[in-house]
Amino acid sequence: MRMSKTMCMFVTLTMVAMVTLQAKAQPAAEVPLRLVLPRPVFDGTPIDVRSPHIEAYRGDDVPPPPLLVPAGTRLLSRGRKVTSSDRQARLKDLELVTDGDKQYTPAAYLELAPGTQWVQVDLGESAEIDAVCIWRERPEQVIYRGTIVMASDDPAFKDGVIILFNNDYKNLAGVGAGADKEYFEDHFGKRIGGNGVRARYVRVYSSGNTSDPYNHYVEIEVHGR
Ligand SMILES: [Ca+2]
Fold this sequence. Notes:
Number of helices: 2
Structural class: mainly beta
Helix content: 10-25%
Number of domains: 1
Strand content: 25-35%
Bound molecules: calcium ion
Number of strands: 11
Oligomer: single chain
Shape: globular
Order of helices and strands: HEEEEHEEEEEEE
Distance between the termini: 48 Å
Low-confidence stretches: 16-23
CATH topology: Jelly Rolls
């Protein structure tokens, strides 16, 4: 049986559409997340903190294992609006969290009030989140308490909240105890997988640190598509 020209074209277009659909159904290839790193600033005596809740110190200048993300992931958070639970925080200090400068200096970080506080990045629109990275390194070695990273499309974080990381094993923030490990801050930054969750807002909690009861952020980056 001979197919008409129109029929041939229809079959060809259908095959192209099927191939395109198949290509779309394939998950994106994974690649290591590439980050621009600041210079290390910690140059002192490692603190002696022993606890089953802390991940082992990797050693000076030893990078963390690569975080795999889908190819095509890009930085979504640069220059995005930052809000906080600390009503005294000034707008120009909040802007330090997403200004792209990850290098610690006494003027380059946000300091929030003591106790449990959060900062929140508004991506401007809902996106697939592949990674959240946090820089809080300081000249003295520190571990921040009760770090929780969550994502939601609700700016009030009442609905559709997805917890991406939680090492608040004492439940200091009151959102539930987490089983992730506390960790030593370093210039590599903490890389947390986003698993492609869809959300517009990313919120990070902390409850002081091993040096003082304050909460600090040099930079937070959200990567996704
Ligand atoms: Ca910054």
